[in-house]
Each structure stands twice: as C-alpha cells, then as structure tokens.
Amino acid sequence: MVRALSSPGAGLTLADVARETGLTRAAARRFLLTLEDLGYVRAADRRFSLTPRVLELGYSFLSSLTLPELAQPHLRELVQQVHESSSVCVLDGTEIVYVAREPTQRIMTVAIAVGTRFPAYATSMGRVLLAGLDGEALDSFFGRVELRPLTAQTVRSEAELRSALARVRRQGWALVDQELEDGLRSVAAPIRDPRGEVMAAVNLSTHASRRTLESIRRELLPPLRETAARIERDLALWQRS
C-alpha cells in the first residue's frame, strides 16, 4: 500500500490504489482509512497521498542498522552496475580493516573478507582515510608506520606519501596502481559523517589487465562517488533517528 502511494504525482484515487495493490476497492478503502487515521496518508479531492510521517518508518529501520549493514545494499547495487568488487573499510592504527564487502570475482592472491587488514599506506581506501586525518594524527601515523615495499610500485618515503595524500585531499578521491599487489588497481572515495569528517572509505578494485587508469577515472569513479554520497545520506538519517 505504501509503495503504491509512493509513486510521483498528485496522489492516487481509490480505484488506482485497488488496481496497483490487487485489492478489492472495499479492502483498499479500509487500509487507506486506517493509514489516514495513523497520520501516514492524507486525502484531498478524492486522491490519497503519503504524508511526511512515513519517514518515521525509515528512521526506525535505519536506527537499528550499523555502517556495514547500511552500506551493503549500496555496494551490491554498485557491483551490479560496474561488475567490479567493492568494499568499505575503516582505519585502525596504521592499517585498514574491511567492514563490508561485495565481491564480483577474485582478483587478488589473498582472499579478502570482513575483518581483513592491509597496510593503509599502500591502498586507495587507506589513502582516503589518511588524507582525512588532522596534522597531529597524521604525524602520529608516520611516527608508527614502516613503509615497506610490497611491490615495485609501492610508495617508499614519507615525503612521497605526504605528497600523495595532499593530492587525495585536493581531489577528494584516491587511485592506487599496483602498490599493494602486482596487477591490482583500486579507486576509493571517502564516506563522511554528518559533521563532514571522514569516517570510512569505499572502493572499487579491478585488475590492470582489464582496466586502464583512464578507464577507472572515467567509468568507475563517478558511480563510486555517487555510492559514497548515498551511503552518507543514509548515515545522516541513521544519526538523526
């Protein structure tokens, strides 16, 4: 019933509601009157439409969810769209920790699952999270991290990494090319809390044999940033509920 009434327009007549829901006119009328009494539906000019109060139903649902649960449907939709694996992670010390993942096919020699950890400095999600740190927190990171070369492409010095993080800060996303593992390319965007602070990162991973860096920027980055924005909107609702 609520789904039928959520269609755009000036509302539905009783006959419209009965047709959309498959109910008899008498049953549809009883449901509509009940929803009207509860404040979820209004009637005007023989047309029924939803009131803003229906948002309470969404708030109640969102309030019971965590970040991974909020993010997972969005990751699934993104993966179906671009056919590349997507993940969400948070920063823990000098490492990233995977908190949500939607795979499409295995592209790494190491299997990734929720709870998997990688060095933040060599990953796109890590770069996004590090770029969101304030100066003191970033200095503390450099005081603890060992920049070990994982591939021939891995960043090797503090100056090089700081320069990369400054670029991420300016452009609002990170692209890492085969620094964690040969053949692995990934692009990441920040997930910000309602205060605008980076709380997590979301990425898309692909193999160098499948996509060029330009292809990643052109075809993967826009839907990735849209997904991050949708997760942020759900988080804002979750915080308010």
Describe the structure in your own words.
The chain has two domains: 49 residues, Orthogonal Bundle (Arc Repressor Mutant, subunit A), CATH 1.10.10.10; 180 residues, 2-Layer Sandwich (Beta-Lactamase), CATH 3.30.450.40. Helix content is 46%, strand content 21%. The protein is built from nine helices and eight strands. It has a six-stranded antiparallel sheet with strand order 5-4-3-8-7-6, sandwiched between helices. It has a two-stranded antiparallel sheet with strand order 1-2. α4 crosses α9. The longest helix has 28 residues. The radius of gyration is 23 Å and the shape is elongated. About 2% of the residues have low confidence.
Largest sheet, strands/sense/barrel: 6 strands, antiparallel
How many structural domains are formed by the residues?
A: 2
| Overall form | elongated
Q: Approximately how much beta-strand content do the residues carry? A: 15-25%
Quick one: CATH superfamily of the largest domain? GAF domain
* Average residue-wise pLDDT: 86
Note the run of SSEs as H and E: HHHEEHHEEEHHHEEEH
**Tally of strands:** 8
CA-based gyration radius: 23 Å
Indicate the CATH class of the largest domain. Answer: Alpha Beta
Helix content: 40-55%
CATH architectural label of the largest domain: 2-Layer Sandwich
